[in-house]
Amino acid sequence: MNSVLNRWIFLGSLSTVFIITLIFGYSPGYGHNLLSAIGISAKIKNNKEMSPQVSPSVMVTDNSVTNISLVSPQMSPLISSNIKQSQIINSMSPMPGDMVTDKVTPTHYQNQNMSPTPNVTPTSITPTPTAPIQTPTTATNVGSVVINEIAWMGTSFSANDEWIELFNVTNVPISLEGWTLSSLTGSSPDPKITLSGSIPAQGYIILERTDDTTISDIQAFKIYTGALNDTGEALELRDNNGNMVDSIPKADKGWFAGDKNSRASMERINPHISGSQASNWATNNSAKTNGHDGGIPSNTIKGTPSNTNSVASF
């Protein structure tokens, strides 16, 4: 009896599956509603009961089916054969309450807040070395500052526009406080110049007679009074302790060099050699000049104030 009953139940099950298959083949919309009614396929509402049987959801774009349904894996072959491939869109979004076990790769930097902090390589800043400030020295030796050029004849603009150049031979600035440059000829008015300030290392300073227009484009370091005699002068440069630093004797024939007619200056050839030697002086050769006089228009100074002498050789 039981075997006969079991056979009828088995045949009834086959008939039910056959009828369901026919329904899906001829009326997809009606079949879906029927399956939903009998509980074979439905939206998953209970996560604990249904999650083991959930397969990836599909969205059916047929007009008769508008909701997204999660279909049991056992039923997927039945519905997939009658749905066009173009009608199925894979949906990565689970329905509310569904359990998602697939690993999802996050979109790269979807959120600006997720952007990685850029690696900043520290930059090494090397400080620029600054040259130390040199304090002018007060210790002087003979020849540390020399009388380097003399325009005893004035300029092309005026014979009274006389000027004298001093040169610091050393590599350190030298204080000139209390120094003097004097004429010893005894004629009146002999210049006697009291100096102050300092002279830069390897630098020049210009002493101008009466005003600062003698050399119009070079500022005078010191303005002095008194005139240099065209027949020659004996000049002495002394420091603040009265020590002789440099000197030029008065020659029997007048100045060692320079030209009154062309207004070319008297230049020292080698500042490291004594200024008392006539052979260490020469007249500006006009190949090199510097500056302009106070004329309007101005004339080129026939000398090299605040610059290397045209006849320099050292």
Write the layout of secondary structure elements.
Layout: H1 2-26, H2 28-38, H3 47-50, E1 58-60, H4 76-80, E2 88-90, E3 145-151, E4 163-168, E5 174-175, E6 180-183, E7 192-194, E8 198-199, E9 204-209, E10 222-224, E11 235-238, E12 244-248, E13 266-268, E14 281-283
Parallel strand pairs: 9-10
Antiparallel strand pairs: 1-2, 3-4, 3-13, 4-9, 5-8, 6-7, 6-11, 11-12, 13-14
What does it look like?
With 314 residues, the protein is an alpha+beta fold. It folds into two domains: 2-99, no CATH class; 145-283, Immunoglobulin-like (Sandwich). The chain contains four helices and 14 strands. The strands form four sheets. It has a six-stranded mixed sheet, with no helix packed on it. It has a four-stranded antiparallel sheet with strand order 7-6-11-12, with no helix packed on it. A hairpin with a 5-residue loop joins strand 11 (235-238) and strand 12 (244-248). It is rod-shaped. It starts with a helix and ends in a 31-residue tail after the last strand.
Low-confidence runs:
34-94, 96-112
Q: Give average pLDDT, whole number.
A: 75
H/E element string? HHHEHEEEEEEEEEEEEE
Helix content: 10-25%
Q: Remind me, CATH topology of the largest domain?
A: Immunoglobulin-like
CATH class of the largest domain: Mainly Beta
Number of domains: 2
Number of DSSP strands? 14
**Bulk shape:** rod-shaped
Strand order of the largest sheet: 10-9-4-3-13-14
- Main sheet summary: 6 strands, mixed
Output the structural class.
alpha+beta
Radius of gyration: 55 Å
Strand content: 15-25%
